[in-house]
Amino acid sequence: YNNGKSITYVKSPSISKSENTVTGSKISWSKCEGAAKYRVFYLDSSKKWRSLGATASTSFTHDKLTTGTKYTYTVRCLDSKGNFISGYNKTGVSNTFLKTPTISSLTNIDGGVEVKWGRLNGADGYRIYRKTKSSNWSVVGDSDSTSFVDKKATSGTNYSYTVRCLDKNGKLVSSYNNGKSITYVKAPSISKIENAATGSKISWSKCSGAAKYRAFYLDSNKSWKSIGTTTSTSFTHDKLTT
Question: CA–CA separation, 149 vs 141, rounded Å?
């Protein structure tokens, strides 16, 4: 025998986690002894590994992706000169990117705050969160559609809402953003209607967050017509037909 050849063994990185962030797919792996850096690849449409970049960290985010699309990744170790010093997982690890749902509108309706957003391909459901200036994000409910009514909102309170995607098993598969905000003011509920000397008097309870109230009546065309504004919690509709 002779003196042979020597090599420093560096194991192939094993991707331990893949998740969606606001900007793209983030993959993570454990540190490999002997590696100075790592090069990340994804499988392109021609089934060839294409380099995304190198990092000294043990995670990498692939940005500017198409929502609802599956991407497959693998990682190799590099030495200080940028040379490959490990093998790689030829099968790779896949992740389907789903972007964070964007809230299109927040509306105060009779019964709560209505949250609406656009549908995302690949999402089987959505989870809705809210917070106030003094609280963190908390779950208010799930939806299979692209709207949700928060019926537990307190009148006069400012809320921020955000939405995340769910898969068919109820697992979170998208990130979240800062969302949109609205101050919830409940719809006035008429508590009393009575005939006064000059007309019909309606009364309602005070709504926190309201500065004034506008009263309407249903005209002959079945359209709501304004009859006046008041800072009070009652209003008299005059000059009526007995």
Answer: 9
Predicted confidence band of residue 3 (pLDDT cuts 50, 70, 90): confident
Distance CA 179, CA 116 (A): 11
Task: Count Cβ atoms below 10 Å from residue 126 Cβ, excluding itself.
Answer: 23
Alpha carbons within 13 A on the beta-carbon side of 141: 14
In this structure, what are the phi and psi dihedrals at residue 124, rounded to the nearest 5 degrees? -95, -10
Q: Which two tokens stand for residue 39?
A: 């090069």
Here the tokens at position 54 are 């190198």
Name the average pLDDT for the chain. Answer: 96
Cite the beta strand spans of 21-174 per DSSP E.
24-29, 37-43, 49-55, 59-63, 69-78, 93-97, 103-109, 112-117, 125-131, 138-143, 147-150, 157-166
Q: Taking Cα atoms as reference points, which of 20, 15, 16 lies closest to residue 76?
A: 15
DSSP state of 11: P
